[in-house]
Amino acid sequence: VHISDDAPFLQFGFRRGDLIRQINGVTINHVADFKREINQRRGNSTNIFSVLRLQAVIPIKVSVELPIVY
Q1: What tens digit of pLDDT does each residue of 14-50 get?
Q2: C-beta of residue 24 within 8 angstroms of C-beta of residue 36
């Protein structure tokens, strides 16, 4: 899942063009996977995203409630 300019996730440290590969160790292959995982984890206090940025995989720790994704 690619991050766009208007994505609410920019406030969490994501950048335009980031590719989300995992959320808390769960592989994200499709937009449906991303939506499912985000919406299931909304109550979690901390979530770790594995992001591909400029050919390097980096973790992004998000310690706030995640937005609803439609």
Answers
A1: 888 889 999 999 999 998 998 888 888 777 678 899 9
A2: no
Rounded distance between C-alpha atoms, residue 57 and residue 6, angstroms: 22
Sheet holding 47-53, edge to edge: 26-27, 19-23, 47-53, 56-62
| Look-up of token digits 């937009």 | 31
At residue 10, φ and ψ (nearest 5 deg) are -60, -30
CA distance 33 to 56: 22
Q: Tell how strand 26-27 and strand 19-23 pair up.
A: antiparallel
